[in-house]
């Protein structure tokens, strides 16, 4: 059965992660995503050259371009621009994540394409927005991490600030919001019959991601300090080292959980301590509370705490490595990982679609080799060949 976006076609003129991640989501939902690559592309730099490489291709390209078909076009040539415009007459969505002005120079500006296809939903993603002194600068995850202050709340208590180490947090968030915006514009088109332009940038996406931190600062004037593994709003809510030098994370989020937690820890005196009488007080005296709990956690191994915290209904967990997650029963039974087949890299592991539809299921298909579907797409359009590929 086809996915919820079956019949929707996407012209995907994107690179690196932000744009490709957005179109990957649309492809998983059933859209026919046609990813455009230059015929002379250096395969080793595809996907920003993110190591390691697989068969000479960046792992970033493989991870961020699933659920698509791939077409070679050189948009600097009149012949290939004509092919692109013919294809765009059949498309519902146009995605691009290049600096302001590049699309217009390639004949892919909004006004140019809206004249060809008034129903087109046109989504442009930039690093910094279309105006201001930084508009022409390239955007990247690390730069956005620095600029937006995201790094300023990460690190050890009292230590130096650290960059958030889950690389591509800003890229991924912006890409997901772009996919969401495209879906809303398609919904609006059903009412109006017209397409529209969507402008997005990584700074605005970062502000959305940091809404709580920004609200706290604007309300109080106090910048959040790094807390290591601890949460800002609840306590105890952090990782503790166990007897076997492994870690367990515990998250006490209600007074009922706090009572159960004190009973499990065999520390009823904590319930009577005014410093810990409410969550507000526990947060205020977080360090003192952690100092009392640390030796208790060190008295038993990780598996003990996981067993008994779980029985007591207290949210808990332990850090899994990816090789453990791959075979974890919970991940297996819920399809957390999938193994799509690719023509260039064989079967690979990937996270699957994050949604489950009862009537219009999402799918996750392997990444195409650059330009792999060029001839099939041109045959569908009944147009001539694009510029020959010389890269490799």
CATH class of the largest domain: Alpha Beta
Secondary-structure class: alpha/beta
Helix content: 25-40%
Radius of gyration: 25 Å
Largest sheet, spatial ordering of strands: 5-2-1-6-7-8
What is the straight-line distance between the termini? Answer: 36 Å
What's the count of strands? 15
How many strands, what sense, and barrel or not for the largest sheet? 6 strands, parallel
How many H/I helical runs?
Answer: 17
β-strand amount: 5-15%
CATH architecture of the largest domain: 3-Layer(aba) Sandwich
Keyphrases for this structure?
alpha/beta, 392 residues, 3-stranded antiparallel sheet, Rossmann fold, elongated, 15 strands, 17 helices, 38% helix, formyl-coa transferase, domain 3
Structure, described:
With 392 residues, the protein is α/β, with parallel strands linked by helices. It folds into 2 domains: 9-209 and 329-381, Rossmann fold; 247-317, formyl-coa transferase, domain 3. It is built from 17 helices and 15 strands. The strands form 5 sheets. The chain has a 6-stranded parallel β-sheet with strand order 5-2-1-6-7-8, sandwiched between helices. The protein has a 3-stranded antiparallel β-sheet with strand order 9-10-11, with helices on one face. It has a two-stranded antiparallel ribbon with strand order 3-4. The longest helix is centred in the middle third of the chain and has 24 residues, at 169-192. The radius of gyration is 25 Å and the shape is elongated. The chain starts with 8 loop residues before the first strand and ends in an 11-residue tail after the last helix. The mean pLDDT is 88.
């Amino acid at each position: 059965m086809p996915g919820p976006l079956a019949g929707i076609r996407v012209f995907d003129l994107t690179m690196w992660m932000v744009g490709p991640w957005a179109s990957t989501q649309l492809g998983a939902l059933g859209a026919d995503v046609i990813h455009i690559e230059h015929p002379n592309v250096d395969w080793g730099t595809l996907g920003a050259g993110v190591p390691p490489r697989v068969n000479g291709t960046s792992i970033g390209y493989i991870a961020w371009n699933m659920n698509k078909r791939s077409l070679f076009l050189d948009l600097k040539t009149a012949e290939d621009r004509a092919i692109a415009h013919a294809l765009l007459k059949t498309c519902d969505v146009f995605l691009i994540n290049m600096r302001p002005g590049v699309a217009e120079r390639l004949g892919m500006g909004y006004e140019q394409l809206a004249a060809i296809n008034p129903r087109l939903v046109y989504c442009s993603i930039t690093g910094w927005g279309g105006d201001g002194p930084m508009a022409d600068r390239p955007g990247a995850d690390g730069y956005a991490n620095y600029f937006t202050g995201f790094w300023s709340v990460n690190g050890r208590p009292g230590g130096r600030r650290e960059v958030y180490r889950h690389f591509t947090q800003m890229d991924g968030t912006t890409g997901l919001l772009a996919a969401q915006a495209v879906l809303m514009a398609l919904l609006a088109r059903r009412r109006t019959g017209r397409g529209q332009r969507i402008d997005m940038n990584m700074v605005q996406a970062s502000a959305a991601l940091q809404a709580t931190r920004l609200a706290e600062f604007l309300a109080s004037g106090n910048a959040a300090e790094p807390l290591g593994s601890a949460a800002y709003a609840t306590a105890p809510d952090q990782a503790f080292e166990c007897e076997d030098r492994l870690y367990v994370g515990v998250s006490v989020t209600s007074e009922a959980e706090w009572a159960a937690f004190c009973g499990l820890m065999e520390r009823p005196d904590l319930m009577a301590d005014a410093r810990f009488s409410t969550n507000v007080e526990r947060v205020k005296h977080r360090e003192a509370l952690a100092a009392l709990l640390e030796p208790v956690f060190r008295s038993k191994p990780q598996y003990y705490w996981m067993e008994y915290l779980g029985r007591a209904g207290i949210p808990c967990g332990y850090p899994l490595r990816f090789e453990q997650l791959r075979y974890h029963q919970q991940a297996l039974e819920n399809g957390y990982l999938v193994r799509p087949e690719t023509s260039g890299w064989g079967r690979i592991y990937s996270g699957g679609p994050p949604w489950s539809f009862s009537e219009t299921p999402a799918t996750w298909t392997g990444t195409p080799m650059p330009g792999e579907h060029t001839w099939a797409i041109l045959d569908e359009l009944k147009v001539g060949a694009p510029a020959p590929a010389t890269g490799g």
